[in-house]
Amino acid sequence: NPACMTVGREKSERKRLSFRKFPDLVPYKIILTARIFLRVINMGCSCSKACASTEKKDDKSNSATITFDHNSKTRINLENELSSQQSEANKLSSQDEKIEQTEASDVVESIKFDLNSETKKNLENLQGLTRARNNTLRIAEEVLPRKYMNRYPSFSRAPPGGELRQLEGKFDDLLSECENVLPTFRQTLINIVEAAGLVPDEIAVWDGKEVMLTPETPYKSLTIGPLKSRERCDEKVANEYDGDYSRLVDIVRASIVVADEDQLILVAEALQDLDIVRLKNRFKEPVFTGYCDALYNVKIDGIICEVQLHVSAIVAYKEESHHYYGFFRSFFAGNVPACKNRIDMLERCIDPNADLQTALEEMLKTDDEYLIRGMCVLVYEMGDWYLCEVLCRRMCEIDPDELACKNNMAVALNKQGKYVQAEALYRQCWEVQKKTLGEDHPETLYSLNGMAVVLFRQGNYVQAEALHRQCWEVQKKTLGEHHPETLHSLNGMANALSCQGNNVQAEALHRQCWEVRKKTLGEDHPKTLISLNNMAVALSRQGNYVQAEALHRQCWEVQKKTLGEDHPVTLRSLNGMAVALFRQGNYVQAEALHRQCWEVQKKTLGEHHPETLHSLNGMANALSSQGNYVQAEALHQQCWEVRKKTLGEDHPETLISLNN
Known about the structure:
mainly alpha
């Protein structure tokens, strides 16, 4: 009976994980499956004989139909066998259901978690952006200017593989030239709009309502925007253009809003008289928020300017999605592809209209590793290491032999300050990889490097240095001296040397790392700035406080723009700056900066996180140096009590607190 065979096969496939949790059931299932299979084979033989005898009888009548004698013993035997087989299949199904219930209850117990308020806010904004995008696309589908879409394809006059650029020069000079060209730009567009039969100052309307540019200001048929602010230019250049100000081609900008496609085509025809250097027809290829428009870049008096053409029915729905876009432009440091990828990932993982806590709990009850892994990538970007650990732990339950999941969980544990657990996982991965991949394999060295990092965090600086050096020596030969993984090992080795008091050597290694990263990654890359920050720490420990402060400040200024003010790495630079100020005797300023870090870290990392305690310790030192000994003692006591529990009594940082 193929149906019964399918039931058994589907159950065994679906319950693959049950064998791992209930190994004593494996022999029972194998024997039972074998018995059912043998009975089916035997029945097949009986059926073949019956069919053969029937065929001989039917041959005489030249009938193509094969029938059984419904009064024969064959039918009775077959029914008995099927009944017996179905009974045993039902037993198997019943046993599976019991296992399934037990397994489900196990999973439910293991996935209880509290959703971090910051993560909840970020995910809800992603959901909101997804909903807004879907609404915009739905409306746009009804009014899309299809004639325009086909008549005016996107193009660019930038060099092949290159980008549009303003004339090279200083940014201040570019801003000055943009200001000079603004009157000509305004008059040119007034002529364009009037040529298309529109009134430049007329308020744009859709469905009887004004179309709003801001909550207070409506769009007009022609809206000339102010020059893009210096702050926004700096942010965009840092986040999207790798420090290249010449790629700013929207400092001078304007919007034209039309009521229908006929007006849109009239405006497009009038624009053909200008020097158009690029057209993005986003009616045909909407941006990731779902918004559709046409974006022209035109050159006027040598300056590239931007003109956006909107259809009022579509722009009326822009406000909701633009609110969310603004949030993510800040959250993902202006990285538009990152925003799009996160939305795509969230849409695959969670319904945009679902309750987040419930949706995540339901997800963690499933065996869908692809889905859980996608969600893990999303929260990794958000820096929620607790939820990342929860998701990784579930993936390890689904596939206990998957080393990548264990490595990822070790990263999440390390980021939370759970160093002993992280070390155990890294060591477990390393032991397996040594045997299966070899000692010098990149993945084996990755685990060894991770182990070195958590040993460093536990205060085992000599051992950490030795492991980082071991990795570095191999990676130099196999990957090359400038490979990112090689530099990561070099950076770790330098940190370990610095904590052992070898600050001159540590500074030299950090400088070496920084020089390479500057060339290969760029000056403002997060990893380049980490090297610069570490170099500042080594300088501070040598007594070069002024130089150290300047480097910490340099890092902090860039990281504020690229990572955000509250990012752990940004706060690390701010903390370093506070230490350097403290060493120069600026106790009040040092206290304020340490307190600023501490307040944020309490919320984002937790009160007991090592980084939070580092800020608390610095704040207590600054208070002590101002004569506030009672308050300083209380804070040092608080720090010491936590470090005793989380790091151990003999950890260097615990002893520093007891000394303080």
